[in-house]
Design brief:
The protein has 12 helices and 14 strands. With 371 residues, the chain is α/β, with parallel strands linked by helices. 53% of the residues are buried.
């Protein structure tokens, strides 16, 4: 990870952790097992920035009478072993009752720990199908699973892009495997054929070996199941290889890092998205987008918006009188038709939300709505 990124993350942590706490105020700890370093450090940035804006709103609204929220963030690096050490610290030393985290491999590893210790895990980014099945009733998600996004991507590739043959390039973690499996099944069921599946390691920078195989497969579309920084590199190298056919990607690719890393090579790249749109969405979405851009110089990804909501849900639970993990869990199941910056959400019996898909395409260096 670059030094400037570490410095930026440290600056964000300081600004959040030093948020003024009145003398005598009850302190409620919001835990986070974040990706501050490792293969996808941008996610740590997304998380902490979302928290920062949420804490400002919680403070300004006075919604927690006589109390304050304090963020306690640990670096999980998107590595289950490291994340397990981080959550043990949050549980045993910081005594958190609620924490946010990302990454399918990490969520699947931490969900049983949350369940055993009766504390709430709020997932803001992991989409593996098994997330719905684990850690009940203490694991919650404010992002739909790959059953929604990868199914939508397969349908889009077959129906809109008229692709009959697809190759899949996917990251070697639970997120990548889950997205690959669902895309492959749905695309095949529609009548298409997956002509190849190529895997890469988290945070990889060189995709030439995989791309050579994909070029030989001669697909009509390449489905990329990975993260934004990886996607940008892969697309750029693919175009340099003379691979000019269409690519479509997961929601994790809808981020500034894809555009910045790929440059002009990103033009024409398609990606799945949910209703959240910080430019042309609802008034709440646009207000959040402008405020975030004013604060940090870029538009917010859905992950920053999800982290904002994770903090607001914690505050709403505390304001309702809940303070322990079981009490917070019970409160969260009452969330129905809440109008938020990512759209109207309801938490179902499995602790999940569901949202419809839409699609974006890169034109003029920006993600814009497809059609």
């Amino acid at each position: 990870m670059k030094r400037w990124s570490v410095a930026l993350m440290f600056s964000l942590l300081v600004s959040i952790l030093s948020y003024p706490i009145s003398y005598g105020a009850e302190v409620y700890k919001l835990g986070s097992v974040a990706c501050i370093t490792g293969g996808i450090p941008q996610h740590g940035e997304y998380t902490l920035r979302g928290f920062k804006l949420a804490l400002e709103d919680i403070e300004e609204s006075g919604m927690i009478k006589g109390g304050k929220i304090e963020v306690v963030a640990e670096d999980g690096q998107n590595v289950p072993r490291v994340a397990l050490a981080a959550i043990n610290k949050l549980i045993n030393i910081d005594k958190v009752q609620y924490f946010e985290t990302v990454g399918s491999s990490v969520v699947l590893a931490l969900a049983p720990v949350a369940q055993q210790n009766k504390i709430v895990l709020m997932n803001t980014a992991a989409t593996h199908p098994k997330v719905r099945e684990v850690g009940k009733p203490y694991t919650f998600s404010i992002i739909p699973g790959t059953a929604t996004e990868s199914k939508g991507s397969a349908q889009f590739s077959f129906t809109e892009l008229k692709a009959k043959k697809a190759s899949i390039l996917y990251v070697n973690n639970e997120y990548g495997h889950g997205a690959k499996d669902i895309f492959e099944k749905v695309f095949t069921d529609l009548g298409g054929k997956v002509v190849g599946t190529e895997i890469y390691d988290l945070g990889a920078t060189d995709y030439r070996t995989q791309l050579a195989k994909i070029r030989a497969q001669n697909p009509d579309v390449v489905y990329f199941a990975g993260h934004a920084n990886e996607c940008g590199r892969a697309i750029k190298q693919a175009r340099a290889f003379g691979m000019n056919g269409p690519w479509t990607g997961t929601i994790a690719t809808v981020a500034p890092e894809t555009l910045k890393t790929a440059g002009e090579a990103a033009e024409g790249f398609y990606a799945v998205a949910f209703p959240y749109d910080p430019v042309d969405g609802t008034p709440k979405m646009k207000e959040f987008g402008q405020r975030y851009k004013n604060a940090f110089g870029v538009l917010p990804t859905i992950y920053s918006a999800n982290s904002y909501i994770a903090a607001m849900l914690f505050a709403k639970a505390i304001a309702s009188g809940a303070s322990t993990g079981p009490e917070i869990s019970k409160y969260l199941f009452t969330i129905k038709d809440w109008d938020t910056i990512i759209g109207k959400i309801s938490i179902d019996k499995d602790g999940m939300v569901d949202l419809p898909c839409r699609f974006l395409v890169v034109k003029g260096g920006n993600f814009i709505p497809y059609k």
